[in-house]
Known about the structure:
This protein is α/β, with parallel strands linked by helices. The chain contains 16 helices and eight strands. It has one domain: Rossmann fold (3-Layer(aba) Sandwich), CATH 3.40.50. It is globular, with a radius of gyration of 21 Å.
Amino acid sequence: MARPSLIDRVLGRDSTPSDGADASAPAGREASDQAPSSRTPVPFVVGAPRSGTTMLRLMLDAHPDLAIPPETYFVTQAYKRWRKSKRPRRGENSVETYIEVVTTHKRWPDFHLDADQFSARVRGREPQELGDAVRVFYEMYAEKIGKPRWGDKTPFYVRKMDVIQEVLPEARFIHLVRDGRAVGLSIKDLWFGPDSFPDAAQFWVDRIDEAREKAKGLDHYIEVRYEDLVRDPEPELRRIAEFAELPWNDRMVRYYEYVDERIALETPPEEVAQDGRVVSTEERKKIMENVSRPPDPARIDRWRNDIPPEELAEFERIAGDRLRELGYPVGSEVSQGS
């Protein structure tokens, strides 16, 4: 028997339904054979950076029916350009503008799609609405991975959920929330992070507040706590799967078994940070170093020992109200274990 290809092994096509998959979710079907309706629910994982969104992306992507690409970012930019190109006498072709926005975006190389094929597919679709053009990108990515459905994980979209819903009404927003102190500890030294710990506190508060304000106008939105997902993944993943109308498959719980081979399909190129520094492929991949292991509840409270007391006090002064609202203990409540 021939050895399964890398994609086949990632999808589990060499296994039988005894791996825990629902009979309604066959592992081996091809996207081109059973393309879903354009209105099939599409999960969008959003949240403050370093809230565990990459882990959740890979959990969902482990499902044999669902492909989630690396962070996209271009949808909101395309939205602005598309609207401008629709204005009378502007003289800009909206379809060609969209193609340009996507294929010249700095993240385009992350997806390993052929620009000529993508352009031809978009033109062939003759999209009248931006959503029709956007779906072409995601469909092509899902086909490349060999799956019939697609989603997205771009933390930044937590600020633009209203725009995403306008473009893709089928979007189902999953806002992953993590203790802001852990977020601050994780993000403060990264190339895209705030400059100081107090700035990280305000950054986190702003993201929570923006998300909840945007959520008031959304048709489909849930919040998931990172800590709950780490401590007991299956109940939270079942809730998310039901929300996204995704048949249950326990590969999502065992996602870490497939991560190395899944990431092998992605090689992020160098990126220029906002300060002009070149971020290497190795540095970009390093932020994913923990996702190839099972979720570790012991890491949840690492911030308690790693944040200096004076910095912790300042963080809680800025973010304490929001932490309490989300059920996280603050100050003396932490030592009491409440």
